[in-house]
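Archive entry: two folds, one per protein. Generate the first.
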Amino acid sequence: ATMCSILMCILGSQIAAKGAAAAAAGKMAKKQRPGRCCTITMIILGVLLVVLGLLLLIPFPISWYPALVKSQIPLIERKDGSYTKLTGFWQNLPQLATYDFYFFNITNMDEMIYEGAKAHLVEVGPYAYMETEFKEGIQWMDDNMRVYYRSNKTWVFRPDLSCTGCMEDDVVTLPNAAYATTLALKAQNDMPPNVLRLLDLLLQALGENPMSSVTVGGILFNAYDDPFLDLVNSNITKLLVELGGGTLGGVPVPDIPYMGYFPHYNHTNDEDYVVRTGQDDPMMAFQIEKWAGQDRLSWWSGEAAEFKGAGDGTFYKPFIEDDDVLMNFQSFACRAYNMEVSHHEQWTGIDATVFTFAEDSYDSNKEHNIGYRYENLEYIDYFPDWPTCGPNHTYQPWAMGDKCVGVDCRFDVNFCSDCCDGSHYERTIFMPPGIVPLRCLPGQNKRLPFAGFLSPPHFSSSPSQVHDMMVGLAPDPVKHEMGRWWINTITGGTVHALFNMQLTIPIYNDEDFMLTTHMRNSFLPSFWTHIDANLKPYAHDFIVLSAQTVPSVVLGLGISFLILAVIFFAIAFCCFRRGRKREDEEEVFHTFTYNVSTEDEKKPAAVQIRPIADAEQRRESPAQKYPELYEKESPESSLSWKSRTLQHEGATEEAWS
C-alpha cells in the first residue's frame, strides 16, 4: 500500500509538471485556458481514487469479504473427489495436540486398607503424548447437506516432553478399576448374600486389592493384565452367562474387553459422527447432528443430554459475536460443555476470541445442571462436612408448617434451610460443586462399569471440604482451570486450545468386601490430563493470510486511495489557480495596448494612456515609429525606449504618469 501511494504521487507530480510545462511553453491551443488539462486530469484521477477507496472501506468489509469467507466455509467434495481448502483441513486436522498426563501416586496403600488412614498422594508427571487425528469413512448424505465420518486418533509417547526420567514402564499405585467395578455391581444390583460372599472370596483368591500398582503405559493406552478381567472374559464365564440367559447368577457381566483408561484406543476411532456441511447455511457448518447414531446422550437427562448443534472443538461458525455461546462436545467426557466469550487477544499473530467454560459446568446442584447429578446408589456421604450450614441449622421440616411449601431441597440454594437436610435428599446424597459423574468409557457408547467422576484438576472448583479428605492436593485456580479456546473470529477455526480434566474413582467402606471393612470412604483422584492444541505452521499461515493480511491490505489500499485523491484534488486546485493567473496576464497583454494619440502628442502636458480595443486604431510602438532611435549604433541606444521617445517628441516624464 505504501509503494502504491509513492508511485501514484510520483505519477501525479509528473502529470502536473508536464501540464504546467506545456502551458508555459505555449503548447496549448490559443483558445484553451492555460492549466485546464492538468486540472481535469487531476480531478478525474481524484474521483476514481475516491470511488475505489470508498468501495474498499465500506462495501468490502461489510458485505463482499464476509460473503467471500462464507463461500469458503462449507464442507465440499469436488466432482473429481478432491476437497476444498477448508474441507481438506477438516478431513486431515492440521493440529498438534500434546496430552500431559499427571498421576496421583498413592504412597500409603496398606495404611488405607488396614488402618483407615487418609490417602497420601504424590503427583508424578507429566507423561507427554503427541496426538494427531484424521477423518475416515466419509460419506456425504442428504444431497451433501450432512456428512458421516469417524475420527481416527493416534498418540505417540514423547519422552523429550515428559518429566526427567519418566518412561511408560514407570509403576504407579492407583485405585483399582476392577475392584471398583465389583463395588458398582453390588450397588446397581440386588445381590443375594451368598453371591456377595462368593464374589468377595473370588476377589481375594485372584489377589485383587482396592488399589493396584500398574505401569503408566498399561493404565493409559496399552492395557494391562488383570486376573478378575481375565476371568470375566474367559470361555467358561461366557458359557455360564449364555446358560444363565445373559447374566451370571442374576448379575449382568460387565463388557470390559481390556483393562485401562484408554485401552487399545490408539490408532482407532471413537464413535461415528454426522455433522452439517453448511452448504445450505454456512453459519450451521460443523454442527454435530448425531454421535454414535443418537441425537441425545442416553446416560444424561434433561438439558444435559443435549449435544445437537455442538462443535467438536476444532471448527465453529464464522464471524463469531461477543454474545455467542458455543457448545463444545468432548467424547472423552461423554458430554457437551457451554463456552462463553471471555475477551479478545492475539495468539501468534492471529486475532482470536477467547472462550472459557461456564463456571458451573461441574456443578450438578444447579437447576439447569440437574441432569448431571450422581444417583449415589451406594448411599455414601463422601464429604460429611459439606455443606457448612452452621450450628443453628436444624433439619425439622415437620416443625416448619407451611414454610416448607415450595422449598425444593434438590438445589444448593436450599441445602441449609431448616426444611432440608443438607446434601441428603430422600435416598441419595449429593456431590459438592466441581464434581460430576463420568458415564461412558472415554469416546465409546458404552456405560462405565464402575463409579467414575470428572472434575478440574485437584478439585480446583470444589470447596475445601473436598481437598481436606486426602493429603497431597494443591489446587491452583489458574493452572488447574477447566480450559479455554482461542477461536479466530472471522473463520471460526480454533487456533489454540487448553483443556484440563481429572478422573476420580471412589473406594468406600463396604462390610461385604473384607478388604474395605477398615477403610474410610475415599474419593481417590487417579490422574489428570492437560491438553494443549496448536495449529500446524501451514494452517497457521493460511489463517494469517485470509483473516489478517487480506483485510489489512484492503484497508491500507482504501485509506491510501483516499489520501491520494486529496493530493490530486490539491494539485488540480493549484493547476486551476495557476491557469487563471496566466489567463489574466494574457488577457491584459492581448486586449489592452497603451498608445499615445496624435492629438495628445501636440499637447505633451495632457498626454493620457487609454486602452484601444480595436487593433486597426492602435498606434505603432515607439520602436516601430522611430526605428532610427533603436539602432545599436545610435547614440541614444543606451537609453530606455521611454527616454528615447520622450526626448525625440519633446515630451516630459510627467506626461506619462
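Generate the second and append.
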Amino acid sequence: MATQPHGGELAVEQASPSETPPKNDQVDLAIDQLRAGARDLASSNVAALAQCSSEVLDHVVKCSREWVDVACRIKSIPPGSAGRGEEVLAGPGGVTRYLRLMINTLGDIARTGKPELPGKVSMLEDGRLQVPMFPARGIYDSVMFAGIKAEARMQSGVTQANLHGDRLERLTATNAAPRIGVVLGAGNVSSIPIADSLTRVFQDGNAVLLKLNPVQDDLKSVFEDALRPLIKRGWLQIVTGGADVGAAAVYHPEVDEVHITGSHHTHDAIVWGHDPEERARRKQENDPLLKKPITSEMGNVSPWIIVPGNYSEKELRSQATHLAASLANNAGFNCLTTRMIITWKKWPDRQRFLDMVQEVLKTIPPRVAYYPGAAERYERFTGETPAIDDQGRIPWKLITDLDPAERPILFEDESFICVTSETQLDAETPEAFLENAVEFANDQLFGTLSSSMTLPNDFRKRNPKLVSQSIDRMRYGSVCINQWSALVYGLMTPPWGGAPESTLDNVQSGIGSVHNTYFLEGVDKTVLQGPLCNMPKPVWFPTHKTAEEIGWKLADLYHHPSITKLPGLMWAGIRG
C-alpha cells in the first residue's frame, strides 16, 4: 500500500472480493460500538439531531484552543505567525460555522419542513434555477463578508418542488435502515475529517467510523473530546493507524458506504484494486473491487484565469495578493491551491502582474514542508532539487510561461506542494481569450473541483452574457469570480465537491459533496462572486496581522451569535 499525495491515506490490500476482507481488532471494536448507535441514529428525529449538534458545538468550543495548539505542533507553526490564524479558521473555526448553520437549518426543518434559504430562488436565461447560498442569515455574514455572494446553479430538471430531492424525506424518516459509513480523513486541514464526518451523521444518517490520516493522529484525543456527544450516542468512533487499518474499515462487511478525501490514485486503488493490471481489467469489465457506494473529494490542478482589461494599480495588486495567498496558505498543501494561472499572451500588463505575485510571495516567510513526500514531489514537478533550509522550509515557486508540451505533469497532475505555474494563451481579443481559457481549463487541466477567474469591471459590463456563459461552461464544482475558491469550502453552505459528471472509472475530482447545509440536490456548480478589492483585508491573506484574533472571535460568534460581538470583530478586521 502506498501513501498518496494527500487525503485519506489508504490503498487496498491485494485481495480479490472472494477472499476474506482484511481484519483489524481496533476496527472490529469500533464497528461493535457503532452497531447500536446506527439503529439509534436511524430512529432519531430532527429535534434530536439539532440537540446533538448544539452539544457538539459546545464541546468543539471547549476543545478549540488545544485543537489549534496540537495542529500547529504537527505543522511546526510558531506562535504569533500567520499560520496560527489559518489553523483557527480552517480548524475549529470552520467546524463551529458548520455546526451553527446545521443547528439553524435543522431548526427550520423541524418548524416548516424545509430549510429557509437566504434569499429568493431565481431563474437563469436557459430556465435552470439559481439558488442563493451566501450570505447566510442569522450569523451576520453580510457584515463580516461584505460584497461576497454565492449561488448554486442547478442542473436541468431541478424545480422548486424537487430542490432537495429526497434528502429531507430521508432526514425526517424515523424508520430508516441503520447505516454505518467510513470516513477516510484528510491529513492536511484539520476541519476536513470533522466536517466530513458531521455531514455524514447529521445529513446522511450514517453512524461514522472516522479513520484519521496518520499526519493527524496526534489530534485523536482532541477530536474525541470535541465529538464526545456523538461518541456517547454511538454515532461516531475514531480509529488511527496505517493503510491496513483503513483497508479493514473500508472492506468491513458491516460498513455500508465510504467517503474519502484524497487523491484519485487512492480512490482507484480502493475501488478497482491495488495492482495496475487488476485495475485495468476491473475497469474494462466494470467489476469494482469495492461493492458499496463511495463518495469522494479529490485533488485538482486548480486554474485561475486572468481576463485582461482596465485594472487600477490597486486592483491588480489585490488580485496578485489573492493569488499569492492561495499558494502560501497551509504551505501549499491544499487540494484547492492555485496550480495554473492562465493569462492572455497579448495582455500588456501580464509581466507586471506576475511580478506583483512574485513580490508578494517574497514577503511571505517560507513554511515547513510538514506533509510527507514534499521534497520528492517538488523535485518531480519542477525538475529541481528544493532549497530546503535547516528548519525544513521550502521556498515558494512560481513557474511562468509554461508550455504543456515541455512539462505536462504540471497540467496533468496535482503537485500538492508550494508550486504554482503560469501559461499564456493566444487569442485575437480578450473575449476570445476568455473562451479559449475556459476550453483550456476544461480540456487540458486535471480535475473538476474548483476554479477562479479575475474579471475587470469594464469587461463584465460589456460582456454580461459571455461571462455568464463562460461560468456555465466551466466544468468545475465551484467557479469563483475575483476570489479564491477556498471561500466556497469555508462558507459551508455551498456543496463542496467536484463537477457532477464524474464516474467511478473516471473520478476526476470526486463523486458527491459535503457541507451543503441547505440540503440541495442536483447542483451543477457553486458560483461565488466578490469585488476586485476586498475591504477590509481578507483574513486569509498571509499578510493579515490579526487573523488569529478574528478566527477566535468568529468561532465565538458562531457559538452564540449576537450583534454585540460585531464591533470587536470589525475593529480586529480594520487592524489587519
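Annotation attached to the second fold: The chain has a mean pLDDT of 95. The domain at 302-486 is CATH 3.40.309.10 (Aldehyde Dehydrogenase; Chain A, domain 2).
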